[in-house]
Amino acid sequence: MRTRFIACLSCLPLLVAAACATGSQDDGASGDDGGGTGALPESGGGDAGAPDAGNTGNGSPEGGGADAYGPPETGAQDVYVAPDGGGPADAAGDGFDGDAPYDAGGPPAVAIAAGDRHTCALRQDGTVACWGANDTGQLGNGTTTASAYPVNVTGITSATQVVAGWGHTCALMKGGTVMCWGHGANGDNGDGTTNQANTAVQVTGLTDATAIGADGYHACALRQGGAVVCWGYGQDGELGNGASADSPTPVAVSGLTDAVALGVGSGQDCAVKQDQSVVCWGYGAYGSLGNGMMGADSDVPVAVSGLAGASSLAGQLDTECALMTGNAVQCWGYGPDGELGNGASMSSATAVAVSGLQSVQSLGGGWYHACAVVTGGKVQCWGMGTSGQLGNGNTASSDLPVQVLGFTGAVQVSGGQGHTCALRSDGSVWCWGDDTYGQLGNGQMNQMTDQPGLVEDIF
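Given the sequence above, the corresponding structure tokens read:
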């Protein structure tokens, strides 16, 4: 059993310098992240349905598929126009004030996925760009050099969703195959090896995926028909196959045949079933399996107690949140930094309601924080805020949702270790929080911002 194995990764920057997936893929389809998750809007967020963007037809952010390359929440669409009057001030200094359509002469972003120290965006044409840390090849451009600007992922031209883990990234391809790149020591890339991959490699034996999710050192895929497979790190039962061991190729989650959405966290994985109940498997020390027990891992799915009516999920580090059919949000698991959003700073092994959220459209998870897109495209976040990842103009943590400053028009949100990014309906991407490795995409490193800033040169 690990001792919050992902938590110890906070020391890795000193040594070496992502959810939710959803339902069917509509010929090319938000999903936090935690890690985080994007699919063609639908997208990670991609989460079968837009990762973290909550495409109501295909699934939810952080895992999802997209609707014919349409923006999250709206299906196929050729023009991305921001709602009039919305948007942060021109923080990037490029003349874009958030009120006009964002047109840089190329295909707009349709989904995003924040990894722990990097971020990726899926473009309308099926290509993917990434920025931030690259010490394990997670940017997929054939190098291990960090970039504070977006760089193209080599060889990806028909992606429908992108998701990101600690040091690896995966893309769902049109047709149902999956490509991954980056850290591979635990089999993260699913290609049958434990090799690092600086460019994309194909996940072995997977040809019918409809949505994907990734976090930590592992990833999962929802297959046609409702089965789920996972690969990579499995020492706390994250692969759900009845074993506590890594696997470099996909293995079937035991007994799960009717899943419709995924929420992949760093230690626990969860799935919404056809009856809108939720099951989880993996690390359970902080109640992250939601079955009323603290401290017990499970290498097979167990039911989340008393939770009915879930539509999508967003995984964090040892915390899971569910968007309910009435647009409320419930969370369970680790909570000392306010991750559960219920006004308390303690963990819970059963689901508790996030306070004050109304008309939630989609969710995105980070490490120790979560965010929601609400009516009007506003974004509210809760949990740890020490790196400015809550976006409300300070670095205080909050056990209740706080509003991201000056931001409207969002369709998806996705969180990393200490940063958060949001996709707007005009195809632009905005990020805030920790920028140590350039994960905010604004051309700078070793800085931090507690308010949204535009990602530069994404096209």
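The chain is about 0% helix and 35% strand. Try to locate this feature in the token string yourself.
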